[in-house]
Each structure stands twice: as C-alpha cells, then as structure tokens.
Amino acid sequence: MKLKSGMKAAALALTLVLAGTALLTGCGPKTQEGPVKVRVGEVTRSIFYAPQYVAVNKGFFKEQGLEIDLTTTAGGDKTMTALLSNGIDVALVGSETSIYVHQQGSADPVINFAQLTQTDGTFLVARKPLEGAFDWSKLKGVTFLGQRKGGMPQMAGEFTLKKHGINPHADLTLIQNVDFANIPAAFASGTGDYVQLFEPQATVFEKEGKGYVIASFGVESGKLPYTVFMTKKSYLTKQSATVQKFANAVQQAQNWVQQATPDEIADAIISFFPDTDKAVVRDVVKRYKDQGSFATDGIVDQAEWNNLQDVMEAAGELKQRADHGQLVDNTFAEKAKQSVK
C-alpha cells in the first residue's frame, strides 16, 4: 500500500529529525562511565595494613577511577573461599594461601600481584619487663602461647625459634589451640609465660602493664611477602586495566606512607579504627614503620618468595616448592613503581 503525499512528508521529516539527533549524539561528548567497583576482602582489620586504608581515605583509588568495596573476611580460609567462589575480586591475605591453593590443584590459580607488607607483624610479649639483654634461650622450658597452626604468624614464630636453637615442640610447652581473636584475652587471664601477639594488642598490653614487647618476629624472620593483594588468573587477564589501576593506587599510598610521619598516617587511617585510641594507632604505626614492615612497592621478589617457602618448609606446611613465576605477576607493580611518583 502506497503512502499518501502528506504521510510521506511526515515520515520524511521524522526520519530527518531522527538522523539529525543521531548525528548530534555521535558528534557530542560521550557520557563518562562511572567508577569501576572492585570487591576487596581483607583477612582481618589491622593497623598492619595502613597503606591500604591510606589509599582509600586519601582518594588514591578514586583518582584511578576505582570504587573499593572493602569487607573483612576474617581468616585466610574464608578469604580464599570468597575469592575462589567469586564473592570478592581481590583478596588481601598472606601469600602462603596462594601456595595452598596451588598445592591442591587449580585450573584458575591465584596470582600475587601487589605486596602490602613485607615482614611478619607479630611480637614476643612477656609478662614481666625485660631485665638486661634478651636471650632467646630464656624461652626454653616456658609455656608459650602461640598462633594458629598453618598460618604465617605461627610459621614465622616457629622459624624464629628454630633459628635461635629452640625446638618449639620439645624445648617449651607450645599452646596453639586458642582462636586468633581470643589469644590476647587468654594471656591476660593467665595462660602462658610468653605470647606471640599482633598489634594493637601488644601496645595496649604495654600501656596497661599486662605485658611487655621484648622482640619482633618480623625482624627475626626477615623479609617475605607477608600480606599481598591477589586475584584469580582469569580476573587478572580479563580485568588487566583495572588491576593496573589498583596497583597504581597501592603504590601511591606506599609512597605517601614512606614520606609521612606516624601522626599523619594515624590521622589518615583512624576512621577504620573508631574504637582504638589515636595514640595507640600512632605508636603501632611507628613500630611497624621503624622495622620496615610496610612494603615500599608492590613487587614480590624472588628472595622474599624463597624465604617464604623456607619458613613454610620449616613448619612442615609445604608439600612442594612453588615456582615464583607461576604464582607471582610483578608486571603491574613494576609498571606502577615506574609511573607513580
């Protein structure tokens, strides 16, 4: 059926209007996309992870066009389960967990791409103040309240004891059946002569006169990729641009932390620790900063990777050594280090 002349004219006019609109839309500015959301699961909430909170609160992630959805996944097993089941995109957890996944066999391996901390974060705390120089041999025969078996704190602790000629399973009474969250309370109530504690509990105990820091397991066990941002290889491949932006923000935060004072860092991260006195946050930051716990860049080097596996082997937790190139991808951290100033 043919259109009447009036209808033809109307149809033509409509076509021209639509064409003009399309032309103007094509020539005009494109609507900017919103920030890319990255779901991050941290193994625990800790001042030890100060650079991560700096990256959030100083807007470094935002500058990279990223929106960080941060959740505390409470434990290495739960964090890795969340990552493998796509509950999160990126995990902040001990790099030993990527090796455990590798040992079990995985078609989609977990890759370490940006290191955040480079030493163990625990301290040896005694019930009484230190008299004279500390000698590790004093631990022989004592009751030692340690960390959960299989975790990096426990492995770094045992590695240090063995380094000083102490067999943790023969030369002292080792307690390892107390949940991580309950260790400070157990020591405060009288369990153990010495305890291996994270911050801020160690500093809080000192301020309250309940314990005294006499040595650092971080210093004793050396540099290792203690806490690292990691993701599945599939995400790394499909979202490489996002991962690079993430690494850039982490590097910017690391640069800032290296130059900032403990007071400035405490001010930047205090919102993540509303129930902790700012003076405690500052003292904890200073202790970690002074001993070099905060990584200066995200690169996981071969020496650190080897030391990690030495610690795991000494604890009997490593079935077979994992190749650095299989589970570490430094390209993002290396590019971030070169480009972020």
TrEMBL record:
Endpoints of the signal sequence: 1-24
Cell compartments where the protein resides: Periplasm
Principal location: periplasm
Organism: Paenibacillus validus
Entry annotated with the keyword Signal: yes
PANTHER family: ALIPHATIC SULFONATES-BINDING PROTEIN-RELATED, TAURINE-BINDING PERIPLASMIC PROTEIN
One term under GO cellular component: periplasmic space
Designated name of the protein: ABC transporter substrate-binding protein
Protein family per UniProt: Belongs to the bacterial solute-binding protein SsuA/TauA family.
One Pfam family here: NMT1_2
Gene3D superfamilies: Periplasmic binding protein-like II
Keyword vocabulary terms for this entry: Signal
Coiled-coil residue spans: none
